[in-house]
Amino acid sequence: MKKLFLAACAAACLTSLPAAAQFQKPEDAIKYRQSAFTLIAAHFGRVAGMAQGRIPFDAKAAADNAALAASLSALPFTAFGAGTDKGMPNRAKPEVWSNAAAFKGKADDMQAALAKLNEAAKTGNLDQIKAAVGPVGGSCKACHDDFRAEKYSAN
Ligand code: ASC
């Protein structure tokens, strides 16, 4: 009974670690990271849209979306483990793994830029938000330039 309890506890602990999502197979990791990037882009996109005047400015919506994008930015990079280059079509270049330190640098840049945008959005000041949106977009693009392929892989 005690052993069973310990085993259940260990399983619960492992599955509840947010910064170390566990994946059954490479396809699960690829889906997870693609989903995370989709959500980050959706929430950042709403703030960027307000900064660019495409979406009416709403301070509360900007703050909520910036906070979500900043929180979500912690997620995708746990899902680039060894062996997750294949499993389903994806656009991660081999350099993600062969140049892992540089990839980590790009991830850090994106997380730092989103953390700054989150702070700017908390002020409710559109000028501060505008100033913080550009570096986020720049960090997306810098990583895509080096680490995201134009075309999806065959598998
Ligand atoms: C986004 C999004 C990206 C980046 C990029 C910025 O909102 O989906 O991939 O910003 O367009 O250069």
Describe this structure in words.
- This protein has 6 helices and no strands.
- The protein has helices at 2-16, 26-51, 59-72, 95-98, 100-123, 126-147.
- Helix 2 (26-51) runs antiparallel to helix 3, helix 3 packs antiparallel against helix 5 and helix 5 (100-123) runs antiparallel to helix 6 (126-147).
- Ascorbic acid (ASC) binds next to helix 2 and helix 6.
TL;DR of this structure?
This protein has helices at residues 2-16, 26-51, 59-72, 95-98, 100-123, 126-147.
Write the layout of secondary structure elements.
Blueprint lengths: L1 H15 L9 H26 L7 H14 L22 H4 L1 H24 L2 H22 L8
Helix pairs in contact: 2-3, 2-6, 3-5, 5-6
Bound molecules: ascorbic acid (ASC).
Distance between the termini: 44 Å
Number of helices: 6
Class of secondary structure makeup: mainly alpha
User: What is the molecular shape?
Assistant: elongated
The H-and-E topology, N to C, reads as HHHHHH
Low-pLDDT parts are: 4-19
Radius of gyration: 18 Å
User: What portion of residues is helical?
Assistant: 55-70%
- Beta strands, count: 0
The main pleated sheet reads as:
none
Small molecules in complex: ascorbic acid
Q: How much of the polypeptide forms β-strand, as a percent range?
A: under 5%
- Averaging pLDDT over every residue, what do you get? 91
Which features would summarize this protein structure in a list?
single chain, 155 residues, binds ascorbic acid, 6 helices, 0% strand, elongated, mainly alpha
